[in-house]
Design a protein that fits this description.
single chain; mainly alpha; Arc Repressor Mutant, subunit A; Four Helix Bundle (Hemerythrin (Met), subunit A); 2 domains; two-stranded antiparallel ribbon; 2 strands
Length: about 230
């Protein structure tokens, strides 16, 4: 009996932390917790109806995802990037995702390509996209960029883009996707990327991805500069 309890209990505790992480990350992405805002463990625990233990573990995970930063004697805050920091991050993203897209053109299977086409069709029918009010994708397999990065087959690129930078980038991707006219343009840019991938045109795929990310960067940096 004791052995069964030892197996079940950690799973229950872990699932609670996962839920807390998901809810706080969603609040950060949707700007309900704005960049630079202070994190009060006591207030969050009370609001979410959880104890401080699992909340602290969730905050540690979010810190690992670079969504929260801790400063000695000041506590935890939602990560806030300056326009310069943001531009630097997005320049790195352009270079790395451009390379991932180049590799995907060479290595992507027919099944992965068909799945990507189907995903874009699904995205095109999203209500926010049709209305032009936003184009924000769910995580991982429902994310157009995530699938291409995975299809590159390069574990180093996958680790950097799908783990180290992924969650922080999602925050700014969300903000950019809601800018006027961006959703329709992004869908068209994604279609051009798929066309190059389907043609196994590695140069064209990298160029299309870089162009797409340069456009997104221009919107994001302009918005960050205006807000700053």
């Amino acid at each position: 009996m004791t052995e069964q309890f030892d197996i079940v209990d950690p799973v229950r505790a872990k699932s609670l932390v996962d839920v807390i992480v998901e809810r706080i990350e969603s609040a950060i992405v949707n700007n309900k917790l704005s960049p630079g805002s202070k994190i009060s463990e006591q207030a969050l625990a009370r609001q979410m109806g959880v104890s401080r233990g699992p909340l602290r573990e969730a905050l540690r995970r979010l810190e690992g995802r670079k969504l929260i930063e801790r400063t000695p004697n000041k506590g935890a805050r939602v990560t806030a990037l300056s326009p310069q920091d943001l531009e630097g991050l997005l320049v790195v993203r352009e270079a790395l995702e451009g390379m991932a897209c180049r590799l995907a053109a060479e290595r992507m299977t027919s099944e992965e390509l068909a799945g990507l086409k189907s995903l874009l069709k699904e995205h095109s029918n999203l209500e926010d996209v049709r209305k032009g009010t936003g184009y924000f994708q769910e995580t991982q397999d429902f994310d157009f960029h995530f699938r291409i990065i995975k299809a590159s087959g390069n574990e180093r690129l996958i680790s950097i883009l799908c783990e180290d930078l992924y969650h922080l980038l999602r925050v700014y991707r969300y903000k950019t996707s809601r800018m006027q006219g961006r959703a329709a343009k992004a869908i068209k840019e994604h279609a051009r990327i798929i066309k190059a991938l389907a043609a196994r045109d590695s140069d064209g795929a990298e160029a299309a991805m870089r162009e797409h990310l340069r456009n997104a960067r221009a919107h994001a940096v302009a918005a960050a500069s205006e807000h700053s």
